[in-house]
Description:
Elements: H1 6-24, E1 29-34, E2 39-44, H2 51-66, H3 70-80, E3 98-102, E4 108-115, H4 119-137
Antiparallel strand pairs: 1-2, 1-4, 3-4
Helix pairs in contact: 1-4
Organism: Paraburkholderia polaris
Protein name: Heme-binding protein
Pfam families: HbpS-like
Amino acid sequence: MQSLSLELADKLLAAASALARDAYGKPVCVSVCDAYGFLIAFSRMDGAPVRSIQLAQQKAYTCTRMGVSTVAFLARLRSEDVPIGFFCDPLLTALPGGALLADAHGRLLGAVGVSGLAPADDQALAEQLATELLHLTG
């Protein structure tokens, strides 16, 4: 597998909605993008905060552009004391909730961004979805 299909992205969105409802009892926005950061699929659960729409998309985008999760990007910004603006990309965010999506061979397929929960919970859900992708493709 070398890219994410819309069908697979939709399955991730369905899994995200079920996990958010069952594990957290709250609605979320979820974005799935390709390896270049371009949107493949997006879902906003009923009642999810409007501000979470753009945040979910930016979290997925950031992961692909920086090649790491948003948590790892935040850690880099802090450890190197670098302002995010130095990257000259206004779409980057260091808010937790973004995870890379890879196939069973470790090849980058894209990323997922989650917003609507507490930052740590957004990140946990994004990481669960990255693991779910391996089950869907395995």
